[in-house]
Design brief:
CATH class of the largest domain: Mainly Beta
Bound molecules: calcium ion
CATH architecture of the largest domain: Sandwich
Distance between the termini: 14 Å
Order of helices and strands: HEEEEEEEEEEH
Helix content: 10-25%
Strand content: 25-35%
Oligomer: single chain
Number of domains: 2
Radius of gyration: 22 Å
CATH topology of the largest domain: Jelly Rolls
Length: about 200
């Protein structure tokens, strides 16, 4: 009976600290090589701050993005890898004011993912906000976004695909880091500890 009780307490505590999937966002900029605008000029500083592609995408009509410029490139690094789970694994969020359709405003990006920044999985070209499935690539620490916008589709001065940020739907834990506890997990762990304490006092 005593052994069974200890076993149950252990189970509760394991359930309490077991890792839970969590979403994450790009942590750092590895490479930013902005292209030019469609008139051959440089992208203005307020539209080429690559740090604006990091963290939680704001998803607002504001200067929340880094423009790629035509044929420009951005490599984003994740401290904890994006994992391949069933279905889509990450979403690239683009900023175009008023959220136009792709046919109305065809800003496009060629997306690649990599575990080691040496070998890249190619996801092809997508338009505006787009979701991606790692589809067999177990995990990815790097995403490479290369502008693939056709300047002939635009009048006025434009600077191609604007990266607000990336949402990874499931990320691995960082080794030697503080584990992420789910709220219910923390309650279970506390309950397990309390039971252990009370039982031991008897
Ligand atoms: Ca997947
Ligand atoms: Ca845009
Ligand atoms: Ca942003």
């Amino acid at each position: 009976m005593k052994k069974l009780f200890y076993f149950l307490i252990t189970l509760i505590m394991i359930a309490g600290v077991s890792a839970k999937d969590f979403s994450c966002y790009a942590d750092s900029v590895d490479t930013y090589k902005p292209g030019l605008n469609n008139k051959g000029g440089s992208i203005s500083p307020d539209r080429s701050d690559s740090g604006r592609a990091l963290g939680i995408p704001e998803e607002t009509d504001s200067l929340n993005f880094a423009s790629l410029g035509f044929s420009g490139e951005l490599i984003l690094k994740f401290d904890s890898a994006i994992l391949d789970k069933p279905g889509f694994d990450f979403k690239v969020v683009e900023t175009s004011y008023g959220s136009p359709s792709c046919s109305a405003y065809p800003e496009k990006v060629h997306v690649y993912a990599s575990f080691d920044k040496i070998s890249w999985k190619d996801f092809g070209v997508k338009c505006l906000d787009s979701e991606f499935d790692l589809d067999g690539l177990d995990k990815a620490y790097y995403l490479k976004l290369v502008d693939a916008t056709d300047p002939d589709h635009f009048s006025g001065t434009v600077d191609a695909y604007d990266v607000d940020g990336v949402i990874a739907y499931s990320c691995e834990k960082i080794p030697d880091n503080v584990p992420e506890f789910s709220a219910i997990g923390m309650v279970l762990a506390a309950l397990g500890s309390l039971l252990l304490f009370v039982f031991k006092r008897k």
